[in-house]
Amino acid sequence: MRMYDIINKKKHGIVLTQEEMAFWVQGFAEGNISDYQAAALLMAIYFQGLSIDETSSLTSSMIDSGETIDLSRVPGIKGDKHSTGGVGDKTTLVLAPLLASMGITVAKMSGRGLGHTGGTLDKLESIPGFQVDLSPEEFMKQVENIGVAIVGQTRNLVPADKKIYALRDVTATVDSVPLIAASVMSKKLAAGADIIVLDVKFGSGAFMKTRPEAENLARMMVDIGKKKGKKMAAILTGMETPLGYAVGNALEVKEAIHVLQGEGPQDLRELSVYLTGITLWLAGKVSDAAKGRVQAEKHLDDGSALEKFRELIAAQHGNPQVIYDESLFPEGKFRYSLLADQDGYLGSMDTEGIGLAAMKLGAGRSKKEDLIDPAAGIIFYKKTGDRIRKGETIAMLHGNNEEQIDEGRDFLKKSLTLQQEAKAIPSLIDDLVI
Ligand code: URA
């Protein structure tokens, strides 16, 4: 088999066999196929696409490049969730303890943030002492003991994805539906859960800019998971505004705690109970998702999900007192209020711009090596559709460096529009793909 022939076939839109997929993925992962040949194939895939069978073969070959997590020694049903990345998206922080409090085990490998979207690990590390690097044995023990753990991805989980993603990043081939589907699903499948729920975002700050693209991606990922025997569902959610009111690591954890206390912003609560309802239904614990949702609300309101979060923090060496005393979180030295300069309504919120503003404040990274300021970020006081009077605070910027705050403020201003007419509030959950 020759890489030249595989590239040539795909260039002409001919379907690749499972053996051909395995050949190039394995060869590239092991360093036997050059970057320029892999890059040419990625571009051919970008233009010609992949069928569901080809994407499934690509996913399997990527999984085979490394180790997989075997959760069979953990009793019960194991659930996992993935979001394609949103600004202010702290849903995992609510969902993981909520599901665990309802008997669904969550053995979760999460990522760090890069660019304008935040990562769950960075958020959790804003809790003083919290450790995300557990040994495989510690991880399994914790999952068995308390039913939930959230850790960083082990280095050897789908190593082919790391190499392929790095190449996609520099060859303008990231935004290909089959390549994203294989990348996400290889990591989810290697992590070993029985049920996988996906939150596929669309809108200005999302990978998928339009709803049809998001639906296409969701369909593909759901089908790949089902082919591998997993229970799957994906929801399509609009990213027209940040999720909740907080963007930035410690600020987002505090907001997630509010939801776990039965309070907090409605959109974050809604998304969390909706996803939980679907997961319980897929797990066969309720006859329909609506019943699961009602149970989820109960577990938020009666404190059982919050108690599970306390156990999770304590197990991963964090200070569990943070859930009763917010002053234990890192606080920025500086705050700046962004005030409305006229009466009106908050129109569009450019979520990508808001994510970049938070990044400028120190809440995110522009490159992998950048250090995060856990205290930095933005709290919104108004969201799309809200009435605003001149002089009212629209948002508060938090940070530790005045220059960064100036830069973040300029980005934030450009991301918000004030208008004279009230804009219809976009619905958050658009559709369910099963
Ligand atoms: N997230 C991933 O893990 N992979 C992609 O290709 C895109 C988003």
UniProtKB/TrEMBL annotation:
| Gene3D superfamilies reported in the protein's UniProt record | Nucleoside phosphorylase/phosphoribosyltransferase catalytic domain, Pyrimidine nucleoside phosphorylase-like, C-terminal domain, Transferase, Pyrimidine Nucleoside Phosphorylase, Chain C
Family matches, as InterPro entries: Glycosyl_Trfase_fam3 (IPR000312), Glycosyl_Trfase_fam3_N_dom (IPR017459), Glycosyl_Trfase_fam3_N_dom_sf (IPR036320), Nuc_phospho_transferase (IPR035902), PYNP-like_C_sf (IPR036566), PYNP_C (IPR013102), Pyrmidine_PPas_bac/euk (IPR018090), Pyrmidine_PPase_CS (IPR017872)
- Which EC number(s) does the record attach to this protein? 2.4.2.2
Which UniProt keyword terms apply here?
Glycosyltransferase, Transferase
Matching entries from Pfam families are given as:
Glycos_trans_3N, Glycos_transf_3, PYNP_C
Q: Which SMART domains match?
A: PYNP_C
Which chemical reaction does it catalyze?
Answer: thymidine + phosphate = 2-deoxy-alpha-D-ribose 1-phosphate + thymine; uridine + phosphate = alpha-D-ribose 1-phosphate + uracil; 2'-deoxyuridine + phosphate = 2-deoxy-alpha-D-ribose 1-phosphate + uracil
The source's superkingdom equals: Bacteria
The molecular function GO annotations come to: pyrimidine-nucleoside phosphorylase activity
Residue ranges occupied by any Pyrimidine nucleoside phosphorylase C-terminal domain in the UniProt entry: 345-419
Q: What does this protein do?
A: Catalyzes phosphorolysis of the pyrimidine nucleosides uridine, thymidine and 2'-deoxyuridine with the formation of the corresponding pyrimidine base and ribose-1-phosphate.
Q: How does it assemble?
A: Homodimer.
Q: Name the NCBIfam families for this protein.
A: PRK05820.1, PRK06078.1, Y_phosphoryl
Can you tell me which family this protein belongs to? Answer: Belongs to the thymidine/pyrimidine-nucleoside phosphorylase family.
Xref: PANTHER family = THYMIDINE PHOSPHORYLASE
What name has this protein been given in UniProt?
Answer: Pyrimidine-nucleoside phosphorylase
- Name the species this protein comes from: Dehalobacterium formicoaceticum
